[in-house]
Amino acid sequence: MWSYFANPERFDRLARAVIPWTWGLAALLFAIGLPWALVISPPDYQQSETVRIMYVHVPAAWLAMFAYGGLAASSFVYFVWRHNLADLAARALAPAGAVFAFLCLATGALWGRPMWGAWWVWDARLTSMLVLFLLYLGYMALRAAIEDEKLAARAGAILAMAGLINLPIIKFSVDWWNTLHQPASVFRFDGPTIHASKLWPLSIMAMAFTVLLLSLVLTQMRATILARKADQLERRRERRLEQEAGL
Questions:
Q1: 167 is in which domain, residue-wise?
Q2: pLDDT tens for residues 53-84?
Q3: Comparing C-alpha atoms, which of 162, 186, 156, 160 is closest to residue 62?
Q4: 3-state secondary structure string, the chain?
């Protein structure tokens, strides 16, 4: 199945059909999740209204990590099998993941100020998330610095795969080191510790962010494919004009 859709023409047809539905679903989920999270859900008994930052901060953190996992996986597929669509997916995931990582850091600072009394501390979880953001920027900068597209893709793939080691550090940093950051409260072996009144809107927002990421990646991949087709048609037209002029 995957090799079938590795063909750009087939992928373009699939993406053209799917993209309107993903954008529509993302809009619907945000229309449900945002009012539920920011207005309807109750304030926290300790954090009061500041807990509402969680509904953006936590999904952004999840998606920043998920996007990097997808970036590394796509890079591996390209590096081993040279599937151009895998490289397109990696290129599309990088800027989207960087935005989610920045959003995570920014909302974390806004949340940390009233809770910890500081905008930033060199906490293990915060520092490893900053490293993730820098990995995204490094990947994009590396690819932009190399003119040869295939060489840039291979170099970027190596960097992306090497940076994968940072994901378990982010995940388990609160368990491995003393940290101000609270431990996991949703994905736990003994079940979530967060109350259902907050878990439900958080889940809706997480789904909204996930579908948004999918929409952004598919849209960017299709735009890149169409741009390459346009470049190929332009080059063919120029060659034809040169041949006609030579005659």
A1: 2-42+52-178+193-246
A2: 999 999 999 999 999 999 999 999 999 999 99
A3: 186
A4: CHHHHCCHHHHHHHHHHHHHHHHHHHHHHHHHHHHHHHHHCCCECCCEHHHHHHHHHHHHHHHHHHHHHHHHHHHHHHHHHCCHHHHHHHHHHHHHHHHHHHHHHHHHHHHHHHHHCCCCCCCHHHHHHHHHHHHHHHHHHHHHHCCCHHHHHHHHHHHHHHHHHHHHHHHHHHHHCCCCCCCCCCCCCCCCCCCHHHHHHHHHHHHHHHHHHHHHHHHHHHHHHHHHHHHHHHHHHHHHHHHHHHC
At how many degrees (to 10) do helices 124-145 and 166-176 cross?
A: 170
Structure tokens given for 225: 């494919």
Q: What is the pLDDT of residue 42?
A: 93
pLDDT in tens, 4-27: 657 888 899 999 999 999 999 999
Residues composing the chain: 247
User: In this structure, are residues 221 and 88 in contact, taking their beta carbons and an 8 Å threshold?
Assistant: yes
Per-residue pLDDT of 81-111, as tens digits, reads: 999 999 999 999 999 999 999 999 999 999 9
- Asked if residue 112 belongs to a domain, the reply is yes
**Residue 187 covered by a domain:** no
* Number of independent structural domains in the chain: 1
Question: 206: pLDDT confidence band, cut at 50, 70 and 90?
Answer: very high
Is residue 47 in some structural domain?
no
With respect to residue 115, please indicate whether it lies within any of the assigned structural domains.
yes
φ/ψ of 48, rounded to 5, equals: 55, -135
Tokens 């080691």 belong to which residue? 165
